Fold these 3 entries.
Entry 1:
Amino acid sequence: MIQVHWCRINKSSADVKARNEKIIELSQKLNDAITGGNAFCYGYPYMIAPGQFQWTFIHHGDTPLYDVQVRIHDMRRPVLSGSETLQLGTLFPGRSHSFALPGSVSTRTPVQAFNLFFVARNGSWTQEIIDSAPMNLNQAA
């Protein structure tokens, strides 16, 4: 009789533990869905014409990113005048913002250097881009 009662307690305890673990898992999924979880985005200079590009922002992760904004600092310009801030809004998994954002088109020069500072509901992160175009050997003297 005591043995049977002990088995029921162990089984009941295991059921409670499994339910608690499921509640924790679902709570984490809900939190990730609300905040953006571990998702992030990054900027990519997309060529739109010879010598011109616009910024494309690519989502990476399983959950949407909310309230995204990015400050782009052009390292070739002075600190106070070399930045612009773009409001990206919500970015969804598998999608990107790849349309002309106000002030996002910049002239291409042989060396591009940018710092991107992102802020979203789930936190902040940075990206550094340094790109040097290959030298045209026909122009070398």
Entry 2:
Amino acid sequence: MVGPGQAVKQQNFYDIWDKYARHIKIRRAHTDMCNVCDKLISRIYHGPRDDTGKQAAKAQWEAHLEHAAQQRAQYREKVLMNKLQYKNLDPETKKFSTIDGRTAVCVVSFDFTQSVGLPHPTDQAGAIYFKSPLGVHIFGLVDESNSRVYYFFMNESNCIGLDGKDSHGPNSVLSMLDFFLKQSDNGERSLCIYADNCTGQNKNRFTMGYLAHLIKTGRYDTIEIHFLPPGHTKFSPDAFFGLLKRIFRRFSIDLPHEMKTEIATKVASSHTFDKDDEPEWIWKDIKTFAEDRYESVPGINGSYHFKLHRDEERGVILRHCAKEGGPTTEVLMEAAQNKTSIVRTRKLSSKFLRPVGSPQRESKNC
């Protein structure tokens, strides 16, 4: 043993630590912390000793973590099944046959990352620091079937609003999603989307109205959209954003088209779009289109799972729930001729939560 005042070499210290203190770990830095977790952890570990609510807070925290783990497990399972089914693609046409397309599901996930400024020199002169750079917004969409990422680059001069305004709003997101879906049609009749829980950007009636329109026009038969719990949204786009930021830090990039080229050549399995180079990438006012036809979806903020399908008699049906297998709300997404929506809502117990036309004993999930 080492006596007081004696020093050991670094490797010896590591060996001693590994032998006697393996149970002690250095906490890693965390990003995108969950507000619920932070609040409950503070209550459990930093509250008064005589706080009678500690046990309740601990039980609530454990239930919260279990719910987040279940959502992540379902996401990973859906991605794995999606990769397996794409082995049935025709090697020549890269499309599903009519029969296989009925059961095939296109699974995508998307998100924004932190904007960057151009020009970006690796060796920055002092005077440049005080200049205002051109803000470049980055939207990432991942096709989970082949783990291919699609980067969308837009700047203050060509984004949907003046000087970068509304660049992260529903019109921007849905316009890029619509562009991707038109570019990547492999014959699937079902669509599954994963996104974060941002209400202003993703989880709103405009998104639901757009998805209902895709079903009404015959683009898809069924559509699912799942929102991961806030603070527990680490998924495929975040991994590709990490690669992008790593490259961005290491290379000098002056112009937007240089960034597109640099990322496309250095990030494997990637495809890049710059707004100025894509004439088919059009900003659409989907918000006004949906606002004139659909009212707010009742209970949307408390739900994480949404499924839309067509009913031959009633039209497009939206079902949403907070937890798969739990109580579900059903909404009729039917646009009237006078451009005012007809929204009917009813609560369903789990025994009614089955696909239309299927036996009652089969599916009990929303």
Entry 3:
Amino acid sequence: MSASDSLPIWDQNPDNDPCLNSRILRFIDYHIGEDKTAEFLSIFGGQKVSIPDRGMSFAKSCFADDIERFGADFFEALAEEFGGSFMTLPVGKSYRARLLKRHGQTINQIASALGVTYQGAEFLLRKSEKPAHVV
């Protein structure tokens, strides 16, 4: 049994997906899915936040207005895993760029949505590509 076998499924990155290189990003993606993760990152990405302890209310946290949007179960799981900590949430631009591309957005549209140049969007898309498996 390898060390990764004892990790929760969301805490593993067997494909070395460069968009999921952050533990908290893998957690969010696993619990609320790609579209909601992109939405979550567009609201909270880059912010330093306090995660309430398990059993504490999120009602007075920075997440208070978004509990219904992302689900109480998600925030309970967040408190269970990361409660009592301060963390800077990832911006996730590569993650969001890849998702926008998958949804049929052009590079110009991706650049506009993420507040980067055309070249910046191209870079983010290249950065988001999964590495080829070497046999």
